Amino acid sequence: METQLHEFLNSNLLEKYLVEATTPKESEKVTYFLSHYPEAQRAYEELQQNLEIMARYTAAEAPKESLNSILDQIDSSVEEPKVIKLERKRGTPWYFVAASVAAVLFGISSFVLYEQNRTLKAENNVIVDEIFDLRSDIDKNNSKLDQLAAQLTKLNNPDAKKYVLTGNARAKNLKTVAYINPVDKTSMIDVITLPQLPKNQQYEIWAEVQDKMVNLGILDKSDRNLKPIPYVEDALALSIMIGEKNKDSIQQSTEVAEISLKNK
């Protein structure tokens, strides 16, 4: 019923009923809402007040000479009284009042629609921005998924060999996994756990090649996913060492994990 009341108040039946322009069926409907809904009664009374104000504003004043004319007629009719029929000056036509009310309502409706349209435009702009952000996030996620799929493909390649490096007494909780594919000549390492080090030290991965050691890079806790490392042809072993930062010297490094690459 609240929906019916809202539709009734938004219609022009009250205005038409006020100026006696409703059909009998419409009048019956208006009477029903006025008797059952205080909101409708208040709206009707407000329309009545507005109509009365507009009628007073547009009504024409009676000429000041009317009183003198009436008094002259009375004086000339003392001996033989005559009945003087005064016709009431017709006020503002109802259709003019109805048009004025309609104009006011139209102005209010136009302003409301303008504000709603401006709000909708602002909301649409926000939605468009959110859609672009979502598309950007989707593109980034798709790119990450493509990279992950490529990495998984490499790991599942039957030519790829898996090497697990665990720490010695110096780094008991250290654990990393190296994947080396000698066919497509790729190497990756997956950092699982790395014990905490002093700020001036770092973990380094080295490859043993015949009589020399080759530095393959630094390992960090942030490398919690597969990380590509340089592929070294004919590498004999992989080692993880603790070295001093900003110093690329194996003599000052301490080995904490090692695995041979020739046992597979």
Q: How would you describe this protein?
A:
With 264 residues, this protein is of the alpha+beta class. It has two domains: 2-92; 161-260, Immunoglobulin-like. The chain is built from six helices and eight strands; from the N terminus they run ααααααββββββββ. It has helices at residues 2-10, 13-18, 24-36, 38-58, 65-75, 94-156, and strands at 161-166, 175-181, 186-193, 201-209, 212-219, 226-229, 237-244, 254-260. The strands form two sheets. It has a four-stranded antiparallel beta sheet with strand order 1-2-3-6, with helices on one face. Strand 2 (175-181) and strand 3 form a beta hairpin. The radius of gyration is 47 Å and the shape is rod-shaped. The model has no long low-confidence stretch (mean pLDDT 77).
Could you provide a short overview of the structure?
This protein has 264 residues and is α+β, with helices and mostly antiparallel strands. 47% of the residues lie in helices and 22% in strands. The chain has 6 helices and 8 strands.
Gyration radius, in Å? 47 Å
Total number of strands: 8
Morphology call: rod-shaped
- The share of residues in helices is 40-55%
CATH architecture of the largest domain: Sandwich
DSSP strand content: 15-25%
Beginning-to-end CA distance, first to last residue: 81 Å
**Number of distinct helices:** 6
Largest sheet: 4 strands, antiparallel
Q: How is the largest sheet built, in terms of strand order?
A: 1-2-3-6
Look at the helices and sheets and give the structural class: alpha+beta
CATH class of the largest domain: Mainly Beta
State the CATH topology of the largest domain.
Immunoglobulin-like
> How many domains, as an integer?
2
